[in-house]
Amino acid sequence: MAETLLEAKKLNNFIDGNWVATNETSDVINPANGETIVHVPLSDGGAVDTAVEAAKKAQKEWAKVPAPQRAEVLLEVGNMMKERKERLAQLLTMENGKVLEEARGEVQEGIDMAFYMAGEGRRLFGHTTPAELPNKFSMSQRCPVGVVGIITPWNFPIAIATWKSFPAIVAGNAVIWKPATETPIMAHELAKIFEEAGLPKGVLNVVYGKGSAVGDKMVHHDDIRVISFTGSNDTGRNIASECGKQLKKVSLEMGGKNAVIVMDDADLDLAAEGIIWSAYGTSGQRCTAASRVIVHEDVKERLEERLLAEIEKLTIGDGLNETNKVGPIINKAGLEKIQKYIQIGKEEGAKLVAGGYVLEDGDFAKGHYFAPTLFTDATPDMRIAQEEIFGPVLSLIPVKSFEEAIEVNNGVSYGLSSSIFTTDANRVFQAQRDLDTGIVYVNAGTTGAEIHLPFGGTKGTGNGHRDSGVQALDVFTEWKAVYIDYSGKLQRAQIDTE
User: Fold this and answer.
1) Which of 78, 101, 424, 461 is the most buried (most CB within 10 A)?
2) Residues designated as active site
3) What is the pTM of this model?
4) How far is residue 232's CA from residue 26's CA, in Å, rounded to a whole number?
5) How far is the C-alpha of 180 from the C-alpha of 390, rounded, in Å?
6) Same-domain status, 474 and 435
7) How far apart are CA 451 and CA 309, in angstroms?
């Protein structure tokens, strides 16, 4: 199928509107079957330098284009993505492994983001405010930062890229984009779409390569004034440290240890459905995936029975087969990490009641598959209840009260997403106030963010910035205060004249 969907066996960087080849490449492997799909460039720092020079030149002119006209390019991009949605989704499934219905949803998220940020081209609101002196006008306005760098992960190779690149571009910036080497095809396809949509050369540049070469060069490049990163906490902390030394703006979206709270009055069938989707969708490889269920002890056994029954129904395999609901793990390293945590959970005393092993026989032999896993009788302090696993592993933690449930939810170093199932309106409002996460769901799982609201979290999940929503513009703009004095004389603010 790869031959029918891809025109080339080797991808190229996209710099200054040109497709630029490199000598060194790496294989891109379909995690469902181990087959090589395409070869991705492994660039060096010189490619970043070339891209930045092109971006600097292009950005000066792009910033002068009226924002509503910049938005027209995004509208065209959105329309083209919509026309190519099925093909993009199939390519996404091939390189990432997620099942096709999820891939379609991710492409749709990019389409939605294009249309939403195009709308911001006719807003990009600043503020007018009364001046404290007569015959004087005061206002603030958003201005582009210049050249921005975005570093995106493999688990959402097109959605997260649109969260970052679309607001940056509509705000008048130029972009250097380093995609994950595991999933480079979406970057290739999106760059082609921007090219066909008429984006001026140099406004979007794609440089493939390892983080140690391309990413590090971007972080330390003097002319890249913003780094927007989604990925691991260790890498994010290092980026923040290095950008801080340069007084460079940095936006981080990192890990999560998300929990679903199920109270004693919850609709258990609905809760089980939401938990299964949140824990095992994308094989648990989402930053918003549910890896903890904090359940009231009075309904713990009944919920556990429902979860075990639903796990049995899950079909696992190649995501291009639409009967499958759970796809592969991205690579062997991902499998090994999950296996390590299974052993940790057993040693800590949690009870393994489902899964806990690599699927290796038959159709699974050539891919990277892990059985959907459920631990029960976990305690809040266990490592499997504290650390991000990034796989289809779920732990049930019994509690005695609503107050204890909130405390357990907040008792981790992350703060991305949380969920509560209850029919008590008072608890709903207490929970949305007290849950220390950037996203809160009521009577739904921990996944399903919508693009017009800010995406991000508290504590170790990030550094306070947000992807998506109008708040994403804060990352890629600077505020400028403007004062226009039309009095014809020098007026000095805050200086007494009497």
Assistant:
1) 461
2) 253, 287
3) 0.96
4) 22
5) 16
6) no
7) 33
